[in-house]
Amino acid sequence: MIVTDRIAFLVEKLRLSPHPEGGFYSETYRSEERIPTDSGKRNLSTAIYFLLTSESVSKFHRIKSDELWFFHEGSNLTVHTLSGLGHQRLSLGPPSINGKAFPQHLVAANTIFGSSVDEPDSYALVSCVVSPGFDFADFELFGEKELAELFPNSSEIIKKLT
Length: 162
Hints:
RmlC_Cupin_sf; DUF985 domain-containing protein; YML079W-like; Jelly Rolls; Cupin_DUF985; six-stranded antiparallel beta sheet
């Protein structure tokens, strides 16, 4: 019950709302400065709090900007990427002895990615900074069938994150 109490507290205190990809978020910063991009003018950068529980996932999606992830609390979170290298994992959490977890990771622009909490009955609270700034017009959510055709050797994680 302590974990569910903490999750409820964070959702209320940080004013988090459901995110279309899964989890909860709240935008905390949107720069006033705007810059030209191939998709039109975008804010220079944006930042959000993002909370994911072990009962949910962040579904595979892609944005047109770089996204920096910063770990705050809870269990480690795995950011799953799909690319020409296949399925790769970025472990986000406190630095670990085995060298796999780090408190910050970059997901490069145009990378297909999603995330999941590593431990059962837990959560992860992170922040994400997007540059150029996030715009839902640049957000693309993927379905299982289209990803399975592109990445036939990654069917297990595709099924989990779609």
